[in-house]
Amino acid sequence: MIIIIAAGLILGLIGGAIASAKGRSFFGWFLICFLTGGLGILILIFMSSADARHDELVKAVNSIASPTGGIASADLAKWRSLVELDPDIAAAAARVRVFGEQFERMLAEKYIPLNDKTYLQSAVDKVLSIAEKYKDVPKFDPPNMKNISEVFDIDGFPLYRMKDGKFALGCLDGKLRIFDTRLEAENHHSSSRKS
């Protein structure tokens, strides 16, 4: 019996250490691994870290706040050269740049992988349609990422589900408003867009 308890304590400590390294609760996983033995440790090994989930949420928030995502610096340098040397690409870049530099970067992201001017007008049209969607969306400072459990997009406006179950919605006035349910947030968004 003492050997079983000692083994459980050792497995609990190992599980707690792994959990702590992944940004999860040491004591919670200590208890789980103590009670389940190696099964808890196996679950932890295949579980992503809390930091990885946090990074996913940050990426999601950034993609909502800036609809462009990211472009590699080598591709950005290639794009700048194309804009400088090719009058058609320079004209396309100028058309979308009036909506903001992020939309020129978006055009670069759409064009560079293809590098075929037959698709340039289609890429410009796509970026302009996205720019039209985002033209009335103010920039929002997201809430503390550690308090966010999920991120949504409603017509280009961010909606955050908080860990306490409430929802924070980015509104036309550039402020985040808190709602008890997602339905309340969506109804507020719909009514404010109509008025």
Provide structural commentary:
61% of the residues lie in helices and 11% in strands. The chain has 195 residues and is an alpha+beta fold. The chain has three domains: 2-47; 73-134, no CATH class; 145-194. Helix 6 packs across helix 7.
Structure summarized in a few sentences:
This protein has 195 residues and is of the alpha+beta class. The chain contains 9 helices and 4 strands; from the N terminus they run ααααααααββββα. α7 (101-111) runs antiparallel to α8 (120-134).
- Number of DSSP helices? 9
**Number of DSSP strands?**
4
Q: Mind summarizing the main beta sheet?
A: 4 strands, antiparallel
- Integer count of domains: 3
Q: Could you tell me how far the N terminus lies from the C terminus, measured between alpha carbons in angstroms? A: 71 Å
- Name the helicity range: 55-70%
Principal-axis shape: elongated
Strand content: 5-15%
Mean of all residue-level pLDDT scores? 78
Looking across the biggest beta sheet, what order are the strands in? 1-2-3-4
The radius of gyration computed from the alpha-carbon positions, rounded to a whole number of angstroms, is: 24 Å
Query: H/E series, N to C?
Result: HHHHHHHHEEEEH
Low-confidence residue ranges: 64-69
Set down the secondary structure blueprint:
Layout lengths: L1 H20 L4 H11 L1 H9 L3 H16 L7 H13 L1 H11 L3 H11 L8 H15 L13 E7 L2 E6 L4 E4 L5 E4 L2 H13 L1
Antiparallel strand pairs: 1-2, 2-3, 3-4
